[in-house]
Amino acid sequence: RDIPFDNIDSNLMMEYEQYLKSNDICPNSTSYYMRNLRAMYNRAVEKELVIQRYPFKHVYTGIDKTVKRAVPAKIIRQIRDMDLSHDSSLEYARDLFMFSFYTRGMSFIDMAYLKKSNLQNGFLSYRRKKTNQQLVIKWEKPMQEIIDKYDTIGSSYLLPIILDAKTDERKQYKNAAQLVNSKLKKLGKQIGLPIPLTSYVARHAWASIARSKNIPLATISEAMGHDSESTT
């Protein structure tokens, strides 16, 4: 429902901050949402649509230095080579992690919504959910090997993340992301990683490893679908 500016107070913003934290939104992202809301609220104050009540005084609006989430190539190989045949859910999580790495750090939401029709003539073409930017990736053998492991007959989707197109697809994606990240953290602990292993680590790792191979920053930025090199 719509929330009138008059309803925006300190308690509401603190509740919203707590809601974001409970959904595992990191502090910098939470702060980003708050700063955007604050800018809109302040504009409303300027236009005399609401009286200034400083609703953001008790929520975090700063910027933390982010923890490095990349891992070196030897760790990626270690994850790839783990024998996880004893646990199908761990193997599934590892395979999706590797698929993300192979596809230049594709985000989990973009992987979830990949259609079989996105793969044609040896190239995977898709639009980023976040920016609507179109990206094209050469299809390689390791990607196909992961696809071949899972039965998606009868599904229009390339990966076994959204399993039933007739039910809530977003809910299926969210549940799968939660499961995969939970299993990846378990894998990370098994190999003694100092950081939590998540699907996002594959994205950071690909960019970091590409940079170490002297791939130009402009190429990495374009491959990741960033709007600018400064983001990269």
Question: How do you describe this structure in short?
Answer:
This protein has 232 residues and is mainly alpha-helical. Helix content is 50%, strand content 5%.
List the helices and strands and how they pair.
Layout: H1 10-22, H2 27-46, H3 73-81, H4 88-102, H5 108-112, E1 119-120, E2 123-127, E3 134-138, H6 141-149, H7 169-190, H8 199-212, H9 217-224
Antiparallel strand pairs: 1-2, 2-3
Helix pairs in contact: 4-7, 4-8
Oligomer: single chain
Helices, by number, come to: 9
What's the count of strands?
3
> Which runs of at least 5 residues are low in confidence (pLDDT < 50)?
none
Distance between the termini: 36 Å
Q: Approximately how much helix is present in the residues?
A: 40-55%
Mean model confidence by pLDDT: 93
Report the β-strand fraction as a percent range: 5-15%
Main sheet? 3 strands, antiparallel
Structural class estimated from helices and strands: mainly alpha
In spatial order, strands of the major sheet run 1-2-3
Q: Note the run of SSEs as H and E.
A: HHHHHEEEHHHH
Shape: globular
Using only CA atoms, what is the Rg? Answer: 21 Å
